[in-house]
């Protein structure tokens, strides 16, 4: 098959707007935008490789966006850690640690203003944690504790207005607590008790996805600021997955699936449109106990177990018309 060079030659053509159906590899000059552009193939939304964590680990928490994320806590080859890393869209940088080392914690907020709560620390009983810490962009400060100690819980919201739900005490629980920037208050429980679930959204509009209690669930529940309502299920039941986005536009990725569905770690990613879940392109590396941050169109997934993963993946559009010299 003839390529673009054979058909068009080596001269770069000028266009006032991008051509309607450029060939893959075609280069042109956009006079209106005054940039050189290239078609990099069919436009698809998929996971691409990002910069690795400095410390491979699983059961960590995440906060922030694809280009400004925070990863903290977890379990690595040397055991539980309080390590915190900051992501700038290209690479991770080690910053100040949590005060209490733990894995299985949940997070909320942004890269510079985050909250970390719950988890497990086996240094001394009780192993399940009520500890809550607040991040100011430089260091963590212990603030008022959760009401119920638990691990493998989920979180949503921001540093001053967060939600903690589900988890394992053990056993699995449906407890939901609301954070007002100062203290936690118990509010209405999930309809289905479960740990190892994913969460996303805000303090008054959240989503709880998957998990186990011990059966592995496809259940999705929506929070309206007062109570949880069951909505349409995931396509594949799984536990120890990650979620990000908002109540009406979310991603659920990774986890461990039921033996009946093939078992083991999965790379499966599903997208939520506010009504139903749709299977989309998989992670490049199957993993459970991972963390995620961002939106349903621009997300980041990092860490996980197999047994310790440092890999970061970025969710977004690839292909299409791109300006040469830009990402």
Structural summary, described in words:
The chain is mainly β and 327 residues long. The chain has two domains: 4-39, no CATH class; 44-317, Kelch-type beta propeller (Neuraminidase, 6 Propeller), CATH 2.120.10.80. 2% of the residues lie in helices and 39% in strands. It is built from one helix and 32 strands. It has a four-stranded mixed sheet with strand order 1-2-3-32, with no helix packed on it. Strand 21 (220-223) and strand 22 form a beta hairpin. The chain is globular. The mean pLDDT is 93.
Task: Produce the secondary structure layout.
Elements: H1 4-8, E1 13-15, E2 27-30, E3 35-39, E4 44-49, E5 61-64, E6 69-72, E7 75-76, E8 79-80, E9 84-87, E10 92-95, E11 106-109, E12 114-117, E13 132-135, E14 140-143, E15 154-158, E16 161-165, E17 176-179, E18 184-187, E19 198-201, E20 206-209, E21 220-223, E22 228-231, E23 238-239, E24 242-246, E25 249-253, E26 256-257, E27 269-272, E28 277-280, E29 291-294, E30 299-302, E31 312-318, E32 321-323
Parallel strand pairs: 1-2
Antiparallel strand pairs: 2-3, 3-32, 4-31, 5-6, 6-9, 7-8, 9-10, 11-12, 12-13, 13-14, 15-16, 16-17, 17-18, 19-20, 20-21, 21-22, 23-26, 24-25, 25-27, 27-28, 29-30, 30-31
């Amino acid at each position: 098959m003839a390529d673009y060079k054979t058909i068009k030659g080596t001269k770069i053509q000028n266009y006032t707007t991008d051509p309607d159906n450029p060939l893959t590899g075609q280069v042109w000059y956009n006079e209106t935008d005054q940039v050189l552009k290239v078609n990099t193939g069919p436009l698809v939304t998929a996971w691409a490789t990002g910069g690795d964590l400095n410390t491979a680990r699983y059961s960590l928490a995440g906060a922030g966006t694809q280009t400004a994320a925070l990863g903290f806590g977890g379990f690595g080859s040397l055991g539980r850690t309080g390590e915190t890393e900051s992501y700038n869209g290209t690479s991770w940088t080690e910053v100040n640690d949590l005060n209490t080392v733990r894995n299985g914690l949940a997070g909320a907020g942004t890269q510079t203003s985050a909250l970390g709560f719950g988890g497990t620390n086996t240094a001394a009983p009780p192993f399940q944690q009520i500890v809550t810490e607040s991040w100011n962009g430089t260091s963590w400060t212990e603030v008022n504790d959760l009401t119920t100690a638990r691990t493998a819980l989920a979180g949503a919201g921001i540093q001053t207005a967060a939600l903690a739900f589900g988890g394992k005490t053990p056993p699995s629980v449906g407890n939901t607590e609301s954070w007002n920037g100062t203290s936690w208050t118990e509010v209405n429980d999930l309809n289905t008790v479960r740990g190892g679930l994913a969460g996303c959204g805000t303090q008054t509009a959240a989503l709880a996805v998957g998990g186990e209690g011990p059966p592995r669930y496809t259940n999705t529940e929506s929070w309206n600021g007062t109570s949880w309502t069951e909505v349409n299920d995931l396509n594949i039941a799984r536990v120890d997955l990650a979620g990000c986005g908002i109540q009406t536009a979310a991603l659920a990725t990774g986890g461990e699936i039921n033996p009946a569905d093939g078992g083991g770690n999965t790379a499966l990613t599903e997208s939520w449109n506010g009504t139903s879940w749709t299977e989309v392109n998989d992670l490049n590396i199957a993993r459970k106990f991972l963390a995620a941050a961002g939106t349903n169109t621009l997300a980041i997934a990092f860490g996980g177990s197999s047994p310790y993963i440092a890999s970061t993946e970025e969710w977004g559009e690839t292909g299409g018309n791109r300006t040469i010299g830009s990402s």
